[in-house]
Amino acid sequence: MKNWKKTLGVAVSAVAIFGLAACGNSGASSSGSKDGKKTIGFVAVGPEGGFRTANENDLKSAFKNAGFDLIYSPTQNNDQQKQIQAFNKFVNDEVDAIVLSATEDSGWDDSLKKAAEAEIPVFTVDRNVDVKDATAKKAIVSHIGPSNEWAGQQAAEFVNKNFPDGANGFILEGPAGLSVVNDRGKGWKDKVASNVKVLESQSANWSTDEAKTVTAGLLDKYKADNPQFIFAQNDEMGLGAAQAVDAAGLKDKVKIITIDGTKAALQALADGDLSFVIEYNPIFGEETANAVKSYLDTKKVEADIEIESKTFDAESAKAALESGTRAY
User: Fold this and answer.
1) Terminal-to-terminal C-alpha distance of the chain
2) N or C: which end of the chain has fewer CB within 10 A?
3) Which of 104, 57, 56 is nearest to 84 (CA)?
4) Predicted model pTM
5) Cβ atoms 254, 218 nearer than 8 A
6) Is the confidence at residue 233, as pLDDT, over 60?
């Protein structure tokens, strides 16, 4: 534990004990980095597609602009063990706070418990984590990101509206077990009509190439069932599905819904290759940096900061692209 913490008075210590709970305050200020700035450890996902690149670049830029030293530690191929190692090193190095963008939602209890014991606040971004240990839960101050359940609900409502008499289709999912996959699936199930049938759900691991192969196989397997929609849980998989649909001669017969809102997806939507794009807004670096700054300045921080997103049809996609304001 940091030496300065040992000198705090009883009243301030009481604040510190309870302050790491969500919505709490921190009465502490660390010695920070050598240049006097406070140091933030960023346990990141790393290269994964258009959303991830935009999200992590925005976070890095926002923390720099806010006057922090951000140490960026990405993993590769969703390697959770490397993320855990990076997180534990940040705790050992006594950073002022940790921003966690987890590849997996479980498996974080031990690391978060260490952070809580070291009185290092943690802010989860994009994906939530599933924590069982009571002490570990105290480390997490706030979650910042769009709603995955909302995104799944928008996909279901689009299908309901476009197929009031019912329809058959497929779902292309991300890697099994991720909270983002579960939450988008839950949102879909909460809103989808009873006369909409999912013939099969398969993981295509967020990959365009894998989605193209998986979709081609599904279209062939269920040819007699007249599939009419494909819900792809991210843009990259939706773009792969569109290639397979086009190759099968079904471009105008199968509607494709995707989540993220990258420029590539919006262009495909404007061109008629996709049918509906649900934004999962990656631009929340400023909100995250502000939350960290507020907490370290002993101000109240909300436990859940939901980032607003929107949906696109072909017309609004064209307008968004022509505006030149899209950051990803």
Assistant:
1) 40
2) N
3) 104
4) 0.83
5) no
6) yes
Comparing CA positions, the residue from 80, 92, 96 lying closest to residue 43 is 80
**Mean pLDDT (the chain, rounded):** 90
Q: In this structure, what token pair is assigned to residue 25?
A: 């305050």
Please give the Cα distance from 318 to 326 (Å, whole number). Answer: 11
Note whether 157 and 119 are within 8 A (CB).
no
Rounded CA gap, 33 and 21, in Å?
Answer: 25
Residue 273: phi and psi, rounded to 5, are -85, -25
Question: CB neighbours (10 Å) of residue 322?
Answer: 10
Sheet of 304-306, strands arranged across = 69-74, 39-44, 97-100, 122-125, 140-145, 304-306
Distance of CA 127 to the CA centre of its chain: 4
3-class secondary structure for 230-259? EEECCHHHHHHHHHHHHHCCCCCCCEEEEE
Residue from 26, 25, 36, 31 nearest 4 by CA = 31
Model confidence over 27-38: pLDDT tens digits? Answer: 333 445 557 899
Residue with tokens 């996959």: 181
Residue with tokens 């197929």: 163
Please work out, in degrees rounded to the nearest 5, the angle formed at the alpha carbon of residue 228 by the alpha carbons of 222 and 229. 105
Cβ-proximal residues to 325 (8 Å cutoff; 6+ apart), any chain: none
Closest CA to 85 of 77, 95, 74, 94: 74
DSSP 30-74: ---STTSPPEEEEEE--S-SHHHHHHHHHHHHHHHHTT-EEEEEE
**Nearest CA among 220, 217, 314 for reference residue 267:** 314
pLDDT tens, position by position, 295-323? 999 999 999 999 999 999 999 999 999 99
